[in-house]
Amino acid sequence: MSAMLQDTNSTVVGAETEGELTDGFHLVIDALKLNEIETIYGVPGIPITDLGRLAQGAGMRVISFRHEQNAGNAAAIAGFLTKKPGICLTVSAPGFLNGLTALANATTNCFPMILISGSSEREIVDLQQGDYEEMDQLAIAKPLCKAAFRVLHAADIGIGVARAIRAAVSGRPGGVYLDLPAKLFSQVMDAEAGRKSLVKVIDAAPAQLPAPSAIARALDLLKNAKRPLIILGKGAAYAQADEDIRALVEKSGIPYLPMSMAKGLLPDTHPQSAGAARSQALKDSDVVVLIGARLNWLLSHGKGKSWGEPGSKKFIQIDIEPKEMDSNVEIAAPVVGDIGSCVAALLAGMGSSWPAPPADWVNALETRKEANLAKMAGRLKKNSTPMDFHAALGVLRTVIQERPDAILVNEGANTLDLARGVIDMYQPRKRLDVGTWGVMGIGMGFAVAAAIETGKPVLAVEGDSAFGFSGMEIETICRYNLPVCIVVFNNNGIYRGTDVNTSGTSDVATTVFVHDARYDLMMTAFGGVGVNVTTPDELRTAVDAAMNSGKPTLINAVIDPAAGSESGNIGSLNPQSIVKKK
What we know:
Layout: E1 5-6, E2 12-13, E3 21-23, H1 24-34, E4 39-42, H2 49-57, E5 61-64, H3 68-82, E6 86-90, H4 94-109, E7 113-119, H5 122-126, H6 137-141, E8 147-150, H7 157-169, E9 175-181, H8 182-185, E10 188-190, H9 191-197, H10 212-223, E11 228-232, H11 234-239, H12 242-252, E12 256-258, H13 278-284, E13 287-291, E14 314-319, E15 333-336, H14 339-350, H15 359-380, H16 389-402, E16 407-411, H17 414-422, E17 431-433, H18 443-454, E18 458-463, H19 464-470, H20 474-479, E19 484-490, H21 519-525, E20 529-533, H22 536-549, E21 553-558
């Protein structure tokens, strides 16, 4: 076949052909569109450049990034926000590897995402003959994602895409890898046969109903609790069962703690929120209901000092994955099923009335909460120059209070740890942060996808170290003119900018950056708005202007270099040397 021309109507016209044909490029695009996937995040390059061009020509939105990991993070959080798999498109080998970090992180955090990468041909890879960017990508991806598939024939593209979609969103969501060798794209077949080969996925994530006996067991345990507590995880936010979750919390009267990405399922100002009394709530509770939350390191594995005496509490856990039960401690009442169905069943089982939790338990938490909030209030109003973290976050707390529909993206060390406790959220799925692994560099990818998928203004609050992982994507934000306001908390280093190199050499300490860097000037270089601020009042003025204008903005917020502590809440994970130098 010669003189082959491609158009955007799924037609291939050849000088020696008759009739209508299609090829691998168009079949991939048609398969995605058939399943209502409208956006691709990625980085163009051989062998997938034309796939991006043709997808854009076919009406899909193709958002090009400067680095594949950031595109992958965008796809992952798009999946969390929409419950449809986010698509990341990369080139082979190095591009695939860059996207693989985001894919593994998506799997760990239960975000539905599909990484699609071009690759070298099987016959060359298997014999290790040294093809351009040769790599056995499928084998590398398998251990790091929920499922991995390779498509070798154009007629199988529809099935391949369908399997990837179903794997990404069914059961516990996660990342899926789809390997498309370069030769696949130019394969030609009859257009009608190609159309018939496509698959519209039906009921990709079917409801998984809990056993009635599991619901009865959980309710019996909960009814007899003296100090019950509900913990909401990001799985509860992903479920989009917002009304039933709120009804369950309010009908039970039980105090609740939201994990960071579950903040806003109920407003953080809700009277049952025990967020400001977290330590006491965890330590003194006797029955704990986990809704879409896992007892991993973020909850001290459900044991240790933060949980009080060993054996002092029983757990009810709602999760779609049976293997999650008993992962760290015994689960007295496992409830296996999708969160929406499980919560609805619990509500139905509670009947028309439910006994309120003991008043002494509720009052004890309320007393501690009021004391902690009063203690924090003074720190948030501090008006010093340079600012500390609390003073700056106090401003942003007010911004989100006044703009509850804005999406907050947050990463860093102290910037993340402190913001989790300071900034209240009022609506679900409005707070996006580093999640389970604590991976730095999610900020700009999350910010881009949040703006694209929701159309809402985005406030990205970044530590200066965390910003460095994805900061070049401010060009992407400017290129697409997205309503993103980035605030970089600049304290000249990692944790703080005052560490000293004790070796006597001229090198600065490993945690210290260039003093008085002007990140705002990076934004102006790409045509956005850059502002340097040194006081809370200046910060408030700059953020308000950015959020009102919708223009891409970066605010360099000068923070006291001495403000901050090492890794905040996880400093204990940093092992200490046992060798003492004389």
